[in-house]
Amino acid sequence: MKMLILSRTGNQVRAEVPRRVGPLWAESGAPADGYRRIHMMNNADYIFDAEEAIPQYGGARDGTRLILFQWNGD
């Protein structure tokens, strides 16, 4: 069973407990070479990427590791 844990409190997020949340991540609007980047709302210098998610080989799928790294501007 997968669950989401709040890192600040260590509490488990449950579906039956209503929460007020806002978006923390956003997707870029313009694809570059068929790719879009997912970045933090308050800091576009860090982006998420799907490790080894090459479109020719099926792209990202369940179980693909996400990595966070600093965008180098290229």
TrEMBL record:
InterPro entries: Ricin_B-like_lectin_EULS3-like. It comes from the Eukaryota. This is Uncharacterized protein. It comes from Oryza punctata.
